Amino acid sequence: MYHEKLPYLPPILFNIEDCLKVSEDVEALNILLCTCTYILGKAPPALDSDIFTSIFSILKTSRRTRPNMQRNHISDPNEPFPKPQALASATTTHSQSRFRISTRKLPISKSGTIDALTEKIGIPMPEMIFGDNVVGIEHVPSGWSLNFNTPDALDAVDKTDRHMLKVAYARDWESTREGTTQGIKEVVKPYDWSYSTTYTGSIEASAMQFAPTDKVIPIELLKRRDPILFFDEVMLYESELDDNGISIFSVKVRVHEKRMLLLCRLFMRLDNVVLRIRDTRVYVDFETDEVIREYSAQEETYEKVKRKLLMSGRLPDDITIALRDPNVLAPLLPLVEHRAEALNPSA
């Protein structure tokens, strides 16, 4: 009888045989496995670790030999979340003219989803990803749709070393190692770890595609104080870049009676190195069904932006705040890329 040596285990675990008896109980099995895992990592050295190891092995084997066993304990990283009803309840839809606009917002993805995305996309994931969040625009009569989702956004991150950035202290580190860093020019990471995606939305390959255009989004019309019929903001992912800055990718959508604007923005700040803003704007004219998509990329060195903020008369604390606000920074960053496209799903 082992229960005298197992003060942390529930009374149901009196001996090894009892483990086998309760192994048919899925919920109890999950609880016991979690408990044994905790004890193996936390138990005092005086306790007989062989006993814990034996119980742990039996429980783990019991789970592994039941491939169809439902695992839905809240501590399970592979818990089937979100369920269909959760997806439905998290989705908000607004119809305007012949278009339907929808947004879905759910909590941060669990480790099971993150691991699956890491394997599929081939790069480590940001600290916070919202893998089930999505913003969609659909032209109902034709079925044409454009959506913004996290997996596709991360898949558009550069997976090579062509656009590597090095953190601000890399140069200091190199200078302390005389003769050993001649060939080291970048921090070695096999992907763009700033997550500076070039994603502009997803369209079915068989659907109508955007074509280059000279048209521009009518900003003056959008500046009018027309009533906002629908507004939402959806986060897709965020990273603190190993405590060296921030990289945020989010989508905002605003709907008026005759038009709408979607803004998908990447804001990346690598402290003491560089700042980037990459915007995708989608404008829909509800009267003509025309859709215009504009992509713009802005970039400037951290030092130059900080100098511009200082010359504007801001105090040090105000500069720190400004460096976190892409709306303040956007007018200070030079435009390095711009393109416009358009289509009309009614055509």
TrEMBL record:
InterPro entries: Phosphatase_reg/MetRdx (IPR051330), TIP41-like (IPR007303). Belongs to the TIP41 family. It holds the Pfam family TIP41. This is TIP41-like protein. Residues 66-85 are annotated as: Disordered. GO terms for biological process: TOR signaling. It comes from Fusarium oxysporum (strain Fo5176) (Fusarium vascular wilt). One of its GO terms (cellular component) is cytosol.
